[in-house]
Design brief:
- The complex is a heterodimer.
- Chain A folds into 2 domains: 39 residues; 97 residues, Rieske Iron-sulfur Protein, CATH 2.102.10.
- Chain A has 1 helix and 10 strands; from the N terminus they run αββββββββββ.
- Chain A is elongated, with a radius of gyration of 28 Å.
- In chain A, a hairpin with a 4-residue loop joins strand 5 and strand 6.
- By secondary structure, chain B is mainly α.
- Chain B has a domain of 229 residues: Up-down Bundle (Cytochrome Bc1 Complex, Chain C).
- Chain B is 69% helix and 2% strand.
- In chain B, strand 3 and strand 4 form a beta hairpin.
- Chain B starts with a helix and ends in a 5-residue tail after the last helix.
- Classes of the chains: A alpha+beta, B mainly alpha.
- At the A-B interface, strand 2 and strand 3 of A face helix 7, helix 8 and helix 11 of B.
- The complex binds protoporphyrin IX containing FE and FE2/S2 (inorganic) cluster.
- Protoporphyrin IX containing FE (HEM) binds next to helix 3, helix 5, helix 6 and helix 9 of chain B.
């Protein structure tokens, strides 16, 4: 009786069963795994929007506007200059706001401060806000994402 | 009485129930100076049962879409008879459940009950507390109000800091790049199906381990004769549940849970925004961290520290060699008090407005 041969035959069967079972599990789980991950929605990239009206944005004020699916922020400085930035705080994704009393941009979530160039000046935000280009046509404020 | 006896005999004859009764009769719980701690696990279970019952009731009217969620909760609160009460109980009981679970965990920790042979009881327990926090976090979004919306933006954004798979995790959690109606639907499914299923399974496992091994007894305590489980301990546990119920009823009725303003994805985060109290210590820590520490982004460092700390706590049964041998462990005591004081201090200071 060649027991060594017997064991290896048994081992071979076990290996076959094990790998088939493994493959079945993988075959069942892979679609689930892919299903859970949401499909990429091809969004027409918005590069230029009408963000607001000059007449509705007095000096020392700000306004959130829609830039595609994301919020942007328009700021009018004390001196009357209009600037636009991404409205999404670089810390943990809150939406920022203009604080007339500080005369700069502020994030309520963890007390983050940005100056009027969008630079992070105080609190936890690690990076400046993305800056957009502003064009004023008559009373209309257009914002363009820099290329 | 006769009828009940007959019924019992009929069942016993068919299913041999007498051994179960005998077993229940000899089940007992240790008695000592700190045996009050044995009631908190049961109290946590009580609040969980309340959550299941009130959660199912909320399901009758709640609608999980960005367009309808806020209005459906408003409908529950203003039009459905006792709707405000059911919702208030669900919200308050969630908080009491988490508080009770925290107390339970710390008493077990300080009693040293997590060491061999009870490692798995400790691990299922910590997992259950994390699941409870997951319930709280996912449930918080469901009314789709302003606070919940930004709390979820911040909370899910933290996930994106996980090395390598962070962005992938973020998309899985949010159901896309941003917090939208897709996120709400996902959180709803997690809240009412995934978490209840896993929690129920882990609770049964946790209880099975305890049943198998009996309660941990502190060694130094003078021994008193143990207390029979039926009916003595069970009746006492019911008294604790009654106190829990009274507290819950008072909170729910006198401080009805608020709804706030409907979420607007294109409004700035409101001033004074903060998460539920059980996340406050992490929230305030993240607020204190500067933008850069030694060239690394502050919040990444903070989140890494919380992960390592949590893992260390989870692994207590492995590093605590002294208590396994039945000795006192000064190190474990210092770690425990450190964690309790840190959480308590940051939570209290946050309420006092020190971090404003
Ligand atoms: C099987 C069990 C459960 C079901 C079916 C369920 C169902 C629901 C539903 C439908 C809502 C939305 C309605 C509303 O916002 O009031 C909700 C909210 C909520 N749930 Fe649950 N839930 C369950 C368990 C839990 C547990 C165990 C916890 C906590 C540890 C919890 C915590 C919350 C919280 C904090 C809210 C938000 C309350 C609010 O602001 O309205 N839930 N739940
Ligand atoms: S999200 Fe803006 S400061 Fe944290």
């Amino acid at each position: 009786m060649d027991t060594g041969n017997k064991i290896s035959r048994k081992g071979f069967i076990n290996w076959l069963l094990g790998t088939s079972l493994g493959a079945t599990v993988v075959a069942a789980l892979y679609p689930v795994f892919r299903y859970v991950l949401p499909p990429e929605v091809a969004e027409a990239p918005t590069n230029r929007v009408l963000a607001g009206k000059l007449s509705e944005l007095p000096p020392n004020s700000g306004k959130i506007f829609r830039f595609g699916a994301k919020p942007g922020i328009l700021v009018r400085t004390q001196g009357g200059e209009v600037r636009a930035f991404s409205g999404i705080c670089t810390h943990l994704n809150c939406t920022v706001q203009y604080r007339a009393d500080f005369q700069h941009i502020w994030c309520a979530c963890h007390n983050g401060h940005y100056d009027l160039q969008g630079k992070n000046i105080q609190g936890p935000p690690p990076r400046p806000l993305e800056t957009y280009k502003v064009d004023i046509v008559g009373d209309d404020i257009y914002v363009t994402r820099g290329a | 009485m006769k009828l009940i006896e007959k019924l019992w005999q009929a069942l016993d004859e068919r299913y041999e129930l007498q051994p179960l009764v005998d077993f229940a009769k000899q089940k007992a719980v240790p008695r000592h100076r700190h045996d009050w701690m044995y009631y908190f696990g049961g109290l946590t279970l009580f609040f969980f049962l309340i959550q299941v019952a009130t959660g199912i009731l909320l399901l009758l009217y709640y609608r999980p879409t960005a367009e309808a969620a806020f209005e459906s909760v408003q409908f529950i609160m203003t039009r459905v008879p006792f709707g405000w009460l059911i919702r208030s109980i669900h919200s308050w009981s969630a908080n009491l459940m988490i508080a009770s679970a925290f107390i339970h965990m710390f008493t077990v920790y300080f009693a040293g009950a997590y060491v061999k042979p009870r490692e798995l009881t400790w691990w299922t327990g910590v997992a259950l507390l994390l699941l409870a926090l997951g319930f709280g976090f996912s449930g918080y979004l469901l009314p789709w109000n302003e606070l919940a919306f930004f709390a979820t933006r911040v909370g899910t954004d933290m996930v994106s800091k996980v090395p390598f798979i962070g962005h992938w995790l973020l998309r899985v959690l949010r159901g896309g790049e941003d917090v939208t109606g897709a996120t709400l639907t996902r959180f709803f499914g997690i809240h009412v199906a995934v978490l209840p299923m896993i929690s129920t399974f882990l609770i049964l496992l946790h209880l099975a381990f305890i049943q198998r091994q009996g309660m941990h007894e502190p060694q130094e305590e003078p021994k008193l004769p143990p207390r029979p489980f039926f009916p003595n301990f069970v009746l006492r546990e019911f008294m604790v549940w009654l106190v829990g119920l009274a507290l819950l009823a008072a909170l729910a009725a006198f401080f009805p849970w608020e709804l706030g303003k409907k979420a607007d994805p294109f409004a700035p985060a409101p001033a004074g925004i903060k998460p539920e109290w059980y996340f406050l210590f992490m929230f305030e820590t993240l607020k204190l961290l500067p933008a850069k520490v030694l060239g690394i982004e502050g919040e990444i460092l903070g989140l890494a520290a919380f992960s390592v700390g949590g893992l260390f706590w989870f692994l207590a049964p492995l590093w605590d060699r002294k208590r396994v041998r039945g000795e006192k462990s000064l190190f474990a005591l210092v770690v425990g008090w450190g964690v309790v004081l840190y959480i308590a201090a940051f939570t209290a200071l946050s309420y006092l407005g020190v971090f404003q």
